[in-house]
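Regression test case RT-17, inverse folding.

Input:
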């Protein structure tokens, strides 16, 4: 009901009567009034008068009904502990492919290496539940595909020079604007689900004690519609992930990386590796030439450009 009601109000700059809405949507005028009240409570500026209702302004909030073709697969929360935790539970219960869990704010958002991800209002925080028909060994390709599509969407939709730092952080002018975290579970020789949690500093302000982070608003000097961006990103990613040539995402990822050719320091639970980043192999491992000239493949860790 909400998508249809909003569509009518957006198509009419003048007031639309409750009677006209009632006839068009096939519900009572009381039902229309109740839906209008609910939309107003969600932040929609809807003026009412004896002439009817007029939509003045909509909030830039990615409510499920703002993505009507995906509405049944979107779970929206004003506040959540972590979208990853909710998505994991949904995935284990059998939710469909491309289910999306969104939170306006998170109280326990997580980044790589179990770091806390600060999640203030104005950012975009969500987790995707993906069910690709691939063996577990190919699951890293999904992460690289998501990182590539995210960088490209930021470049083309928000007009910023977004680059991927291995494996999947997004940088703009060397400062982090987005982080990504993934989880995978398998059943036998097939992936059951890959959950990808994404946090993007969109229109939020960042505390001064995070000098290596930035936001789209700070870089571009203007806000970027979160709900329009999310819709565009989901469409692009779904199209890319469902193509049969998934292994080619590594080559695509390389076209927008900020890591290859850089001196790097990789920190993982196994130790620290330093050297020059030369390549990413077909499985997503970073190939590093160390100080003694040897080549080392790194499959997991925090990457720092030095």
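Golden output:
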């Amino acid at each position: 009901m909400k998508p249809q009601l909003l569509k009518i109000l957006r198509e009419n700059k003048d007031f639309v009567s409750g009677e006209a809405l009632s006839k068009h949507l096939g519900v009572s005028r009381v039902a229309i009034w109740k839906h209008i009240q609910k939309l107003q409570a969600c932040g929609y500026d809807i003026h009412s008068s004896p002439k009817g209702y007029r939509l003045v302004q909509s909030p830039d909030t990615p409510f499920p009904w703002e993505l009507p073709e995906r509405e049944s697969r979107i779970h929206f929360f004003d506040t959540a502990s972590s979208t990853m935790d909710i998505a994991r539970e949904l995935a284990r219960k059998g939710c469909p492919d491309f289910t999306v869990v969104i939170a306006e704010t998170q109280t326990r958002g997580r980044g790589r290496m179990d770091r806390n991800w600060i999640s203030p209002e104005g950012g975009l925080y969500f987790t995707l539940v993906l069910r690709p028909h691939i063996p577990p060994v190919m699951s890293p390709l999904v992460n690289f595909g998501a990182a590539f599509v995210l960088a490209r969407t930021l470049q083309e939709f928000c007009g910023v020079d977004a680059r991927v730092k291995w494996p999947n952080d997004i940088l703009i002018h060397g400062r982090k604007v987005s982080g990504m975290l993934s989880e995978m579970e398998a059943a036998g020789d097939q992936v059951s689900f890959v959950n990808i949690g994404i946090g993007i500093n969109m229109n939020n302000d960042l505390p001064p004690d995070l000098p290596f982070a930035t936001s789209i608003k700070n870089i571009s000097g203007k806000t970027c519609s979160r709900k329009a961006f999310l819709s565009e990103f989901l469409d692009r990613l779904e199209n890319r992930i469902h193509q049969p040539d998934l292994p080619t995402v590594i080559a695509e990822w390389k076209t927008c990386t900020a890591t290859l050719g850089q001196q790097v320091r990789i920190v993982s639970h196994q130790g620290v590796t330093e050297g020059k980043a030369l390549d990413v192999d077909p499985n997503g491992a970073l190939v590093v030439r160390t100080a003694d000239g040897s080549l080392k493949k790194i499959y997991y860790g925090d990457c720092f450009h030095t």
